[in-house]
Amino acid sequence: MSFLAPPTAKKRLPKEEIDPVYRRLRLQVFIGIFIGYAGYYLLRKNFSLAIPGLMEEGFTKGQLGLALSAVSIAYGISKFVMGIVSDRSNARIFLPLGLVLAAIINLLLGFIPYFTSSITTMFVMLFLVGWFQGMGWPPAGRTLVHWFSLNERGGKTAIWNVAHNVGGGIMAPIAVAGISLTSTYIISIKAFNGVFIFPALIAIIVAIISYILMRDTPQSEGLPSIEEYRNDYPNSSHETLEEELSVKEILFKYVLSNKWVWMIAIANVFVYFTRYGVLDWAPAYLNEVKGMDLSKTSWSYFLYEWAGIPGTLLCGWISDKFFRGRRGPAGVVFMLGVAVAVLVYWLNPAGHPLIDNIALIAIGFLIYGPVMLIGLQALDLVPKKAAGTAAGLTGLFGYLGGAVMANALLGFVVDAYSWDVGFTLIFISCILAAIVFAFTWNIRGQEQTK
């Protein structure tokens, strides 16, 4: 695994070259992690769009929800484990590598019918997708804390975080186009397999572009630390904490002993249950209960994701300007708004698609702000060399506790009871997320790094 080792620091560039090189590389690196992470979302939730087709093959919602949960189980574990590896790796290699591996698994799902022939095989393949997906967030977080200093990181993280929505939003139209192209030109496989094939091909191209643009740290390019460059230090002693940390130091000195990291990890359980409870089941719910066909549900999926872009930016701005760097209050406000939008989406009777789409837009607009806030707090709460691990711990809770329940538990609940019971659980989750955010009301992450 030596090829993953972070590059050593290069000789410092001449003083007159530092500013133009820094400006160019900061923009270049940011674009690299933005499109690279957006590429991961081309491959994250394709299976949700394949669910209606698989149900026609005889699988139940409970079975398919169980298979879908494999992504969240693997991703939750991988985001933590690979976060530790990422903190000690070259981000420029680590992020594109995970994207290529996830694309390969999606191509296998698309081209080889055996891999969608049983719940067991689908679970195994989706577990692999989830594991490789865990290689995306940690290196992006590592890159953010090395190239952007504390007082600008909130805004930059909010902008970067909309990569979720860009990738997730364009995935649905691409996947639906893939269904059409597959049914027309690849007669040997089921049409719904196109949701895996075409997004994967595009993701491989994105991985190559991301590798070309990304760099690991400023020091590896002959530049000073970002704190020195911007004269923006996180503490009065001007410590930049650039030394590489051991796994033991990362885990026990900075992450597992920090009570606020644990608090936001718990909040993430409820945020992710809400996020994926609505998102993953939107095609099936809108098709089964609201009477929409797949082409219309894919656009609802698109609207949900892209509405998160302005919502995320607004949430980051509010937490910076109105609450002066405190993320908890913004989390409370946005999660209560999500609760209201979930009620409208759930209780709106069939035959009013405009209201359904407006409610989905509102949920998407509001839910990604809290998702971003938790990731941002994870970066602020620990030194930069432990950022991937802290983010990984919150992801472990969010995916194993929240997303898995949204996939497996919700599927079985709807099968056994009704969609009403499922949406009752989602609504309660919104309220619990707001309550946990309220416990962090007065916490500024940068004041809690030790």
UniProtKB/TrEMBL annotation:
Its main location: membrane. PROSITE patterns: GLPT, MFS. SUPFAM superfamilies: MFS general substrate transporter (SSF103473). Residues 25-448 form the Major facilitator superfamily (MFS) profile domain. GO terms for molecular function: glucose 6-phosphate:phosphate antiporter activity; glycerol-3-phosphate transmembrane transporter activity. GO terms for biological process: phosphate ion transmembrane transport. InterPro entries: G3P_transporter (IPR005267), MFS (IPR011701), MFS_dom (IPR020846), MFS_trans_sf (IPR036259), OPA_Antiporter (IPR051337), Sugar-P_transporter_CS (IPR021159), Sugar_P_transporter (IPR000849). Signal peptide: none annotated. It is found in: Cell membrane. Belongs to the major facilitator superfamily. Organophosphate:Pi antiporter (OPA) (TC 2.A.1.4) family. NCBIfam families: 2A0104 (TIGR00881), glpT (TIGR00712). This is Glycerol-3-phosphate transporter.
